[in-house]
């Protein structure tokens, strides 16, 4: 049984922020970011007390989940480090098609919760969107405002191009994003205002 002290703990309840949709997923609010000469750095290449030009870049989380899982478990520990950078993409917790649906839902909720937490602490945040099969469309676009800047990745999707495009088109229909930051080469079929980010270049950081 969980005591009252745990129910009063925001890191247990995770209900501090405005939530939306059927599943009550936290809302990441629309924010403006300059996409002219967009430069990014991977979260695994960030560091405390970064005094380089990397501070003018955004931070992405298109790396293995274990490298950033701690930002959900103990979000305050990395807050000062990430606040050094120009903006943050929400963490790309995996939504693999062979995951049980509850795990995919959990990944989306964690993605949005971290984004809402960062925004509540004054950071600029862009939501990362991911999906799997059409069953995930019930929740994977929740917690994101319409006409916002969003980020997606095409890394590794070419073997499942049809599945990717079904999700992409569903995202565009539901969210009508202002701009789509795309990690990896966009597919020819992708519609919208797309800004391409070279993933390899994002891993070449200044030290």
List the helices and strands and how they pair.
Layout: H1 4-7, H2 10-13, E1 19-20, E2 25-26, E3 40-42, E4 58-60, H3 70-73, H4 79-82, E5 87-89, H5 101-120, E6 125-126, E7 149-153, H6 161-175, E8 179-183, E9 194-197, H7 199-202
Can you give keywords for this protein?
single chain; 207 residues; alpha/beta; four-stranded parallel beta sheet; three-stranded parallel beta sheet
Report on this model:
The protein has 207 residues and is α/β, with parallel strands linked by helices. It has one domain. Helix content is 27%, strand content 14%. A 4-stranded parallel sheet has the order 3-4-5-6. A 3-stranded parallel sheet has the order 7-8-9. The chain has a two-stranded antiparallel ribbon with strand order 1-2. The chain is globular and about 55 Å long.
């Amino acid at each position: 049984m969980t005591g009252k002290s745990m129910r009063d703990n925001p890191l247990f309840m995770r209900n501090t922020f405005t939530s939306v949709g059927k599943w009550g997923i936290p809302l990441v609010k629309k924010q403006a970011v300059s996409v002219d000469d967009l430069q990014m750095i991977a979260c695994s290449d960030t560091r405390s007390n970064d005094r380089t030009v990397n501070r003018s870049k955004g931070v992405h989380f298109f790396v293995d989940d274990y490298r950033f899982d701690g930002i959900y478990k103990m979000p305050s520990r990395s807050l000062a480090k990430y606040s050094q950078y120009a903006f943050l993409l929400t963490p790309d917790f995996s939504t693999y098609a062979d995951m049980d649906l509850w795990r995919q839902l959990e990944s989306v909720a964690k993605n949005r919760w971290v984004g809402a937490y960062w925004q509540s602490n004054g950071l600029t945040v862009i939501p990362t969107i991911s999906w799997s099969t059409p069953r995930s469309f019930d929740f994977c676009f929740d917690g994101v405002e319409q006409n916002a800047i969003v980020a997606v990745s095409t890394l590794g999707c070419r073997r499942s191009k049809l599945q990717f495009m079904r999700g992409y088109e569903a995202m565009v229909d539901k969210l009508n994003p202002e701009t789509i930051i795309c990690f990896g080469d966009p597919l020819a079929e992708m519609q919208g205002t797309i800004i391409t980010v070279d993933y390899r270049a994002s891993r070449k950081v200044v030290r």
